[in-house]
């Protein structure tokens, strides 16, 4: 694609200098900015919230600016500190200790954030779950993590299969009219009685902080385990890439059930002490533009799907709102179309900075920054302190323009430390000292990286990762379905949609009603974003002789491509 570069604009920092200084860069320089470098006492909740609450000139600043269709509320740093202290006291009273897994399953709300920091303050590990998860998705994650406590709302309780969760001892209910018992804790009643003083549990940088479940190409979702040390990179990228400044009003659209919603919806903005806009409810182009306009958002981190929707909503919608508060936008999760970047310059007079990273990597790695020229369609360059390359399957680096595995040299602070309860798995990501991402890309002669696609079967639909195995497993639970194979099918707006190929059990007829029933079965059993948009009935599903579904072959059929090597196909 031949597109003009979008020239750099000045941010707070001269990032070109950072970039030139990469060779001498050392993460120790960032660590020295934190007081724990001297004291040895660390807890990410303290650095993110309490530190600002203890600063007389910051404590009354709005930390959290919450709005949903039926509720608006602001919390200052001091209020957020006090409320999370209260919740930490509630947790302690009910026996939660360092290292315990406490899961949060509820819509975005001030209570979510107060609870989240309460969990960190007692030294427990937080497990945020996307509010749209249905029973199966909740079961898999709570079982695997052996969570002992869940914080949820009375409305969502029906999706928590308590009888299958022997480790789950207590459930905190955030809602009115909660009937408290041995098992159920009334959030508001207990908060009212809890002290606003709490002695934070100081932990080690390598102690557990958060578990994010994410999909791989095989098996159930895996628990990606992050430690307090990750905040070093959340802080650094907040400075260099988000380019956060003292008086910024920042908005990240991601839900905290996904990694973007914690690394960049919680840690990065609050480590920098900026006002963080949090929006509940459904999104429409009007409500997106309206949020920027109403709250005077200055830095906005969102996703290509959202931006594509803004583009297709047209200029008439854009012109109803004042976007002049914005300094720049950022994007993550799927390829950012070059057309969207040129639209940003034309329609909004703004640069959109693409960023590349993954749940496993914990924070941004390859990015566009304010003082760097954007090459539309490129993910940018590695941030200081990160070495990225394109390698072959043996971990040898490939020259410019050659496609291969997008890989990162071991050693950045926010890298996951383990896959929960699967010690062998972690090592399998590394080849010859490189973390192999599962994405394919190439780099040009100036070191810009260009995304090509995923090398495994993981589906990326509207920026959300879906594992085909999870969907297939749910499909075959339906009484009519014998076998299932699931792939991502390219889609202009969503990136990919989920397409399922199924065979039917004897006695079932392929009717539209049946297909709809199967779709709803996945939607209500697993989650809406994982439900196949297309279902096609086949006589057989191609499998290898060892019984693995050959999704690659299904995909080739779907796209009308050559089928490649089929020597392992069963008879
Ligand atoms: C994809 C989200 C193209 C990629 C933080 C990666 C991207 C997966 C980009 C991780 C980008 C992420 N351009 N593709 N800028 N950013 N991806 O774990 O395939 O939900 O491996 O993390 O999203 O998705 P995850």
Automatic annotation (TrEMBL):
It comes from the Bacteria. Residues 470-548 form the AMP-binding enzyme C-terminal domain. SUPFAM superfamilies: Acetyl-CoA synthetase-like (SSF56801). Keywords: Acetylation, ATP-binding, Ligase, Nucleotide-binding. GO terms for molecular function: acetate-CoA ligase activity; ATP binding. It is an enzyme of class 6 (ligase). The keyword Acetylation applies. GO terms for biological process: acetyl-CoA biosynthetic process. InterPro entries: AMP-bd_C, AMP-bd_C_sf, AMP-binding_CS, AMP-dep_synth/lig_dom, ANL_N_sf. Pfam families: AMP-binding, AMP-binding_C. GO terms for cellular component: cytosol. Its EC number is 6.2.1.1. Residues 58-419 form the AMP-dependent synthetase/ligase domain. NCBIfam families: PRK04319.1. This is acetate--CoA ligase. It comes from Terrihalobacillus insolitus. The gene is acsA.
